[in-house]
């Protein structure tokens, strides 16, 4: 194996090349016009900050469209046959709209729960729990539920309510609903 020897002349040449390259690189970083850069930065610092101005794009012109079915029946109204044949809102079974609503009429019957019955002064009274946590006593003739329900009969384990509902075809109709004590749900 032969070892390559470097001469002092080669070492000096390599050092001179390295030094020249370093000076050239560092000379490119030097900027004689730093005052201009400082001025630009001062202007940026002096300018008001905040949000940039909002640019709103112009919307294209809209065209009016003709509704082809404007002469037809409105989909939000009943058909003519039902409107003509349909019952009027006034009738023998229509509820009294002028009556002051009772507290339990704010809740549907599905939300109300029968929690007990008792006899007071010879009359049967039912205790009804509402979703707001109150228990209200009702007697026959009291109103409850959102469908104009009226207590028709109170038994030991059941309260029968007669509701009045309106349909377009038949007008005001009565339906019977019962609330019973549910011992598993207490």
UniProtKB/TrEMBL annotation:
Secretion signal, residue range per the UniProt entry: 1-27
Pfam families, per database record: PilP
InterPro entries reported in the protein's UniProt record: PilP
Domain of life: Bacteria
Keywords attached to this entry: Signal
Protein name, per record: Pilus assembly protein PilP
């Amino acid at each position: 194996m032969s070892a390559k020897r470097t001469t002092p002349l080669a070492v000096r040449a390599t050092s001179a090349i390295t030094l020249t390259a370093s000076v050239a690189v560092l000379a490119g970083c030097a900027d004689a016009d730093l005052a201009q850069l400082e001025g630009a930065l001062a202007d940026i610092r002096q300018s008001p900050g905040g949000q940039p101005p909002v640019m709103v794009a112009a919307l294209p012109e809209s065209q009016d469209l003709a509704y082809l079915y404007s002469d037809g029946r409105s989909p939000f109204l009943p058909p003519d046959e039902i409107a003509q044949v349909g019952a009027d809102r006034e009738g023998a079974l229509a509820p009294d709209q002028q009556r002051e609503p009772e507290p339990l009429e704010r809740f549907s019957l599905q939300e109300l729960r029968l929690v007990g019955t008792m006899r007071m002064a010879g009359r049967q009274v039912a205790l009804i729990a509402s979703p707001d946590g109150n228990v209200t006593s009702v007697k026959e003739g009291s109103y409850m539920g959102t469908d104009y329900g009226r207590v028709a009969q109170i038994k030991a384990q059941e309260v029968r309510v007669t509701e009045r509902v309106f349909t377009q075809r038949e007008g005001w109709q009565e339906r019977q609903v019962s609330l019973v004590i549910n011992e598993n749900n207490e």
